[in-house]
Request: fold
Amino acid sequence: LDPLSVDWAKLDVNGVKRKVQEIEKLKSALVLKQLRTAIPFDSAIRDTMTLLLKGRDIDVLFKQEESILYKPVEEVSKQQIRRLSDIFIKGLATRFPFVSNFELSTSSSNVFEDLRKSRLIKEAPTDPLPAREQPILLDLLTLTYTPPVNMEKLIPNYVVTMYIHLFRVLLQLHVAINCLSDAMFEIGLMRDANSYGRAVIITSLHRNVLDVTVNIADAVTHAMVVFETEMAK
Reply:
């Protein structure tokens, strides 16, 4: 029913309030549909989720011949970060154009400390988390988002900032899986009985990190399905 086709004289205060809310909701939905028609909003959302929530092509960041991720951050120049950003972002942007509004940068603290301070985590520690005396680039690598003018309100900075945390966690997990896989391979080549204890620990860590990664991927997939269902209404 059209929320405007109502006898307002017969409504009490609460009834009027409900009708006003219905009209505001309807107008918001119409405005959103108009914006989605006028600008590439759907593809922008898709590209942003592909980068931040799915971590597409994230392995590119640490599978370079001479990866700078493991270098002390003070030894890495802005030019090196820019080159790595170009390799990663420009490559992904050929398939997901909106990704070009992101670039690699560095944070002042690691992602777990940033999450602790963000209040996104329930029962987060009140005290700062331990940090390396000499952090490597991997610890501080993040993304900076510079939205087009017509997207500032549709995909606001604060929402993107929240999901950049997830991108950084995914990077940590993928690097951990890669390092643990290499370690298991090396132990297998050694065939040394004295390495059995180390092999058990590394295998257990590898399985645990994989489990966390799969759980996050499942949660992201579910959230994206719910989001797309709501957007289709």
Notes: The two ends are 16 Å apart (CA to CA). The chain has one domain: 58-232.
